[in-house]
Amino acid sequence: MEKLIKPMSGYLALLIAVASFIAAIFSFANIDTSSLYVVLGVALMIGTFFILKGLMIINPNHSRVLNFFGKYVGTVKENGLFFVNPLYSTIKISLRSDNLQGQTLKVNDKMGNPIEIGAVIVWQVGDTYKAAYDVSNYTSYVRTQSEAAVRHLAGSFPYDNLEDEGAEITLREGGDTVNHILEQELSDRLAPAGVIIKEARISHLAYASEIAGAMLQRQQAAAIVAARSKIVDGAVGMVEMALKKLSEKDIVELDNEKKAAMVSNLMVVLCGEKAATPIVNTGTLYQ
């Protein structure tokens, strides 16, 4: 598991390295005086580079994972100039949030219909030990597992409820519920890499091109049927109200035959797609 450490400040080590480098130059400048200056100069120069190798700068929202001959030493997340054992090997890992714009995938929904789906994922490294040692390449791992999660999500729910009227959740109308399910699955899949999912949203959702036209016609037909149903319900109510008002106010008495004719005419007028053309009857009701 991740272990945070705080190395010693690197400013003192940097000062020593500068002083050692100056002393080495001074020694090489006095080679003619004594051969010992050659040995001293070489030793000081080696010491200078040895100290400089142990210096490291950590920028904001970055970290260094330290390793000593195959053994995990710890992780440095503090910012600044630090000095560590020059024999440590280091791995740079960014702690900044990153966006993953997944490619648009063509998959089958729960009902077997081909659809196109894509997602935008915001993620960041939370555990540097897992990111560095539990997976070979954590960025590639995020891309692959994110695609697998989106594919699994698409196959778990229908695109809409045209074929599955009892579906409680659909991809098109699921909204925040579908996004929450995607976030949870991504968190479970990417936990082994120490990655935290901050947000996941469906960015593209549509029927595949080969069935898009047919599905559009089906949706239009369903919308027309629903609209017609409401129109009929309203027309029946209006006819009922008209007959009731005529009867209550004793405006005209209609037998069953005339009531049927009136109902038929009103339903045609109210439910017709085009405006009705009125015909004035100058005779009686029976002519």
From TrEMBL:
Protein topology in the membrane: Single-pass membrane protein
Membrane-spanning residues: 12-31, 37-58
Compartment(s): Membrane
Keywords linked to the UniProt accession: Membrane, Transmembrane, Transmembrane helix
Lineage top rank: taxon: Bacteria
InterPro entries the record matches: Band_7 (IPR001107), Band_7/SPFH_dom_sf (IPR036013)
Ranges where the Band domain occurs: 53-219
Full protein name: SPFH domain-containing protein
